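batch_manifest entry 22 of 60
target: Probable nicotinate-nucleotide adenylyltransferase
source organism: Tunturiibacter psychrotolerans
requested by: lab member K.T.
priority: normal
notes from requester: please return tokens only, no post-processing; we will run our own comparison against the previous entry in this batch. if the run fails, retry once and flag.
--- input ---
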Amino acid sequence: MRVALFGGSFDPPHHGHLAIATAAANALRLDSVLFAPAGRQPLKLDGTVTSFEDRLAMVELACLEDSRFTASEIDAPRADGLPNYTVETLSELERRMPEAKRFNLVGADSFLSLPRWHEPARLLELAEWIVVSRPGFEIGSLSLLGLDVHQQSRVHVLNNVHEDIAATGLRGRLETGDPCRDLIAPAVLDYIQSHHLYQ
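--- output ---
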């Protein structure tokens, strides 16, 4: 089985997230993409986000769009209140699915910040990485990370995935009453409206 972990705030999950997951699943023949709303992200500790429970519920609804997509609580907030580290999440995924070929799906900007992550060398051993390029991203930028040949072989770059939906702008539109039907799955939009989120 080929499984990708797709972590993020998903505040809210939108068509851009689904496009990324679809492109990754198609390009790397993934059997499953686990959408994992983040508990507390170490590099984003100052931002307020919608509750984990609401984000997980919205992700569950968004995942109905493709049978390969599943919502996962693997990155739920820790009981001790400490930040969630990807290395711990990937270790837990390895424990839960030891036979699976594991991937971690991230954007290019996040991947380029890998040296700032907790235990970056171990991260590249726990999973292969699917890096989603963005317009203007130069593949040569990856050389700045100083990865050895083995590490480079564990990185797959996806080009031409157009996901330029900014969650901040999306939340701003929702706050003004714009339903954003063009950007959000109908079931997710129903959840947002019935739970009075982003108002």
